[in-house]
Amino acid sequence: MSQYPPNPNSNPYGQNPSDPNSNQETAYGGPPSGPGPNQNPYNPYPNNPLAPGTNPNPYGPYGQNPPTPAPPPYNPYDQTVAAPNANYNPYVPPAPPFPSPGPSAPSRRGPSMRVILIAVIALVLVVGAIAFGFVSYNNTQQSNTNATATAQTNATATAHANATATFNAGLTATAIVSNFPFSANLKMSDPLSDNSKGNAWDSTDFCKFQGNAYHAFDPQSDTFNTCVATKTDFSNFTFQVDAELKSGDGIGITLRGNGNQLYRFMIFTDGTYNIVAYADTTSTNARLLTNGTITPTPDLSSTNAIAVVASASTLTFYLNQTKVKSYSDPTYAHGQIGVATYDFTNSAEAIFTNAKVWLLL
């Protein structure tokens, strides 16, 4: 709100009336009716002419100032006017004096002997490592080659060994078939030191184990005694026993026995032998199958291996693995094995050990 009351004579829409108090002719005089030749009609000081060439102010002494010209359009590529440096000092001190050249740098020396020695050692180590690697590689390759050759050689040797073994096995089989005991199938091995092998040898006053051997006795003249393994029963086989005649006149073996029915092979001290088939205990019913003489005359007081190979009806007898006689008889096909001794005029005692039986195919 204005602090002053409104002017009652103010007309906002019309021209203000002239000031009644104005005096056109003052002590200072009114303005001349027209300007002089050198006067600025808007100069309040008419007596002060304008300097030649001065343009009068067209807006009068109280007119508006001429409009400020618009700035030129912005050009982003115009050079920026640098602000004045507040720290700018127009005084520039003189440049310092150019320094005098110092002592010349020492001349560069060549590498020392220590450096050269280290370089030589490093070179030797590198060359040595390369040579070692090359030698190791060659050795490895040679080892691999040798290993391969050895493996091939071993494989070849193994193949040859297998072939040889097979061939030898064939030869062995042929030899077994062709030679005593004619079988590799060992069925019984009894040292005859006792009855622990389960063959149940007779155990009487005339058949007994003594001193780790089996003894057969016959005290009556012109008779024989047999001692049988009662729990044996063989058909086609080889039977061998070590025999020694302690006293008496004969020593031998029995086979395919069944009580009093059996085959008996007996060798006498004079070198003769016989093969008899018994049907009972009497000699009346005994059949002499064959007999003969062994040359040279064996020493029955020493240990001799007496054996028989029974194959079907063929019976082949051996002394110390030498064939004595072969004979065929179909009377008995299987039965027990045993040992025997004979007394013509002297009480007989025979000692037996190492009884063995091989089964024939």
Outline the structure in words.
This protein is of the alpha+beta class and 361 residues long. Among the domains are: 115-179; 187-359, Sandwich (Jelly Rolls). 18% of the residues lie in helices and 31% in strands. The protein is built from one helix and 14 strands, in the order αββββββββββββββ. Strands 1, 2, 3, 5, 10, 11, 12 and 14 form an eight-stranded antiparallel β-sheet that branches. The protein has a six-stranded antiparallel β-sheet with strand order 4-13-6-7-8-9, with no helix packed on it. The radius of gyration is 77 Å and the shape is elongated.
Q: From the alpha carbons, calculate the radius of gyration and give it in angstroms.
A: 77 Å
Which regions are unreliable across 5 or more consecutive residues at pLDDT < 50?
1-5, 13-17, 19-32, 36-40, 59-63, 80-84, 104-108
Report the mean per-residue pLDDT as an integer. 77
Supply the CATH superfamily name of the domain at 187-359.
Answer: Exo-inulinase, domain 1
Strand content: 25-35%
- Main sheet properties: 8 strands, antiparallel
Overall geometry comes to elongated
Structural class comes to alpha+beta
Q: What is the N-to-C order of secondary-structure elements (H for helix, E for strand)? A: HEEEEEEEEEEEEEE
In CATH, the topology of the domain at 187-359 is named Jelly Rolls
How many DSSP H or I helices? Answer: 1
Q: Can you count the beta strands?
A: 14
CATH class of the domain at 187-359: Mainly Beta
C-alpha end-to-end distance? 154 Å
**What is the name of the CATH architecture of the domain at 187-359?**
Sandwich
Which bin fits the share of residues in helices? 10-25%
